[in-house]
Write a structure and sequence with these properties.
It contains six helices and eleven strands. By secondary structure, it is of the alpha/beta class. The model has no long low-confidence stretch (mean pLDDT about 90). The electron transfer flavoprotein serves as a specific electron acceptor for other dehydrogenases. It transfers the electrons to the main respiratory chain via ETF-ubiquinone oxidoreductase (ETF dehydrogenase). This is Electron transfer flavoprotein subunit beta.
């Protein structure tokens, strides 16, 4: 392989507590800490491991989002990616529009493999990888928990309800990563400094001729209802009695 393309997304840090806007139009991100989507970070790590094994020449990362998403790309570059592209846009982009923009980037970069997280932890859509594969007409493997090469084909182990499924894909292909695929590396300070000098191209959706008009309407975003407090029982028999009274047993 020559190039592995890894799309990454900037999301609200998983340790931060989301705040719903007062008008229920979405999540208020002002002043909140942002970070790389964990599934995307796993995809970057796997791409780097493939490159380090001599199976690829370069790893290119791409993100679609506001100017602040440069920080997310710099994190991927600090991990070891070679160069980055930011398609800058301030508004939220729906999965189909993201897939169309990525298709345009694929046409520009001509990668042999697209590795991306199976979903983003902000919207949990789990759609972009599948849509991109369909738009490209490429084979796909989702929820990858293991990836290796054998006889010029990509062998992917994926987790399904019944256990494990193994797929053999020709290249080029699209693969989405699961949590158990790997453990992403930590970025050392020298690599963080080096990342500042790596190429980062900035463009706009118009540069790729993609219509990003919204097709979905968010009716309301609300925080989950609070849980009722539990009760304590003194004995097991009291617990059984309460369960019977509630009709559970």
């Amino acid at each position: 392989m020559k190039t592995i393309l890894v799309p990454v997304k900037m999301v609200l840090d998983s340790n931060a507590r989301p705040r719903v806007r007062t008008d229920e139009s979405g999540i208020d991100l002002s002043g909140m800490r942002m970070s790389i989507n964990p599934f995307c970070e796993i995809a970057v790590e796997e791409a780097l491991r493939l490159k380090e094994a001599g199976l690829a020449e370069e790893v290119v990362v791409v993100s679609i989002g506001p100017a602040k998403a440069q920080e997310t790309l710099r994190q991927a570059l600090a991990m070891g990616a070679d160069r980055a592209t930011l398609i800058e846009i301030d508004e939220t982009v729906e999965p189909l529009a993201v897939a169309k923009l990525l298709r345009a980037v694929v046409g520009e970069e001509q990668p042999d493999l697209v590795l991306l997280g199976k979903q983003a932890i902000d919207d949990d859509c789990n759609q972009t990888g599948q849509m991109l594969a369909a738009l490209l007409g490429w084979p796909q493997a989702t929820f990858a928990s293991a990836v290796r090469f054998e006889d010029g084909r990509l062998l992917v182990t994926r987790e399904i309800d019944a256990g494990l499924q193994r797929l053999s894909l020709p290249l080029p292909a699209v693969v989405t990563t699961d949590l158990r695929l790997n453990e992403p590396r930590h970025c050392a300070l020298p690599n963080i400094m080096k990342a500042r000098k790596k190429p980062l191209k900035i463009g706009a959706p118009a540069d790729y001729g993609v219509d990003i008009g919204r097709r979905l309407k968010i009716l309301a975003v609300r925080p989950p209802a609070g849980r009722k407090s539990g009760i304590r029982v003194a004995t097991a028999s009291e617990l059984v009695g309460d369960l019977r009274a509630a009709g559970i047993v």
